[in-house]
Each structure stands twice: as C-alpha cells, then as structure tokens.
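The aim of this short unit is practical: by the end, you should be able to scan a pair of folded records and say something sensible about each. We start with the first protein, listed as its amino acid sequence and then its structure tokens.
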Amino acid sequence: MTTQIQENGNQIIAKFSGRLDTNAAIQTAEDVKPLLEATKKDIILDCDALDYISSSGLRIFLKIRKEASANSSKVIVRNINDEISQVFMMTGFVSIFEIQ
C-alpha cells in the first residue's frame, strides 16, 4: 500500500495504491496527516489504483472528511472501482462523500 500526497494550487491530492487493509492502515494514517491540516482546500482522494478498502481504511477516510469539514475544506473521492463502490453504498459513504 502506498499513498502519495501532492499539492496542486487549491487542491491537495492523495493517490492511494494497493490494499488499504488493517495492516496498511497504520502507515496510511501517518501518510495522510497533511490532509488533516489543510484549510480551505479541496482534498481529492484518488482511488484509481486502490484495490481494496477495509473498515480501518474507511475510518481513515471518515477522519479526513471530519477534519476537512472543520477546516472549511471539501473532500472528493475519485475513481473508485466497483468493489469499493459497493462498500461505499453498503456503509452509507455515498451520502457522506462527493464521489466522481
């Protein structure tokens, strides 16, 4: 599992690659800390290369959204595959996140 963070103007983009399972969640939580501090920027969670997300990974996404809301930032989830889309539907995340 890898997470790459890059700033692009008024956006911060996090690109996730691999399996965001319980084992990877500890490192991923550290990797996304810059997103938690973003103020008034769009946060893009690019899941194009994300193969799987566990409940631990969902908690990380939820924490990002919570902090973003407190910091007047917006979170957009992009490029989720069918499996992750189903997880988002079953957990209600489709109503919490803007998905593109």
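Turning to the second protein, read its sequence before its tokens, just as you did above.
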Amino acid sequence: MLWLKAFHIFAVVSWFAGLLYLPRLLVYHAEATEPVVRERFKIMERRLLAMTRIGSTLTVVFGVATLIWLAHVNQGYFRQGWLIVKLVLVGGLFWYQAILARLVGQFARDEITRSSRWLRIFNEVPALILIAIVILVVVKPF
C-alpha cells in the first residue's frame, strides 16, 4: 500500500512539473520575436507535453490502484467528502491539461490567439488546485 502511495506521489510530481512549466514556456513563446527562438520553443513544448501526459497517466494508474486498495480496506472510503472534492479537482486538472494540449497545437501552427498576460494568469490555475488538493488530503476537512 505504501509503495502505491509513493509511486502515486512521484507521478503527481512529474505531472505537476509539466502543468506548472508548460504554460510558462507558452508565455515566453508568445513574447518571442525571433523565428529560431520560436521554433526552439515549439520543440520544448511538444516534448514537455509528452512528459506531462506520461506523468498524468501514471498518476491515474497509481491513484486508481491506491483507491482500490483503500476501498477494499474501508468500505465507506468513497463516501468521504474530501475525497469526492479532490477527485473533482483532479478532473479539473485533466481539463486544464487538455487546454494546454490545444494551446501547444495552436502555438505549433503559429496560431497564437492568447496574450502573454492571459497565459501568465492561466499559469496560476494548477498551483491553486494543487494547494486545495494538498489541504484536502492532509487536513481532510469534511
């Protein structure tokens, strides 16, 4: 059980590395004016998106395995309010990742429609969700 939790945490850390850094790359890309620099950002964004997807996939695999284990030990585990809210927030992170993937595609095609200011604000979303999830998991307020 502890091994599942450990690998789940490793996966979450790698996923969040991408969720936190990829939007920052998009900010720099939006502000770049030199074609060589913009092409380099496209490569970095594509590779980081791939790593982010791997991290999110592993997060789900180890998270679901952990949930199954805990539900086996505690029949009422899925009725805990904090867990339900956490899972909804995790769903929000997947929505965020889907938007990131769409943005990376737009940037790859040089179809930048968002300002660097919008991207800077968008960059803060996963950090806020992370704070909420950590508080829910550690404090279990309801």
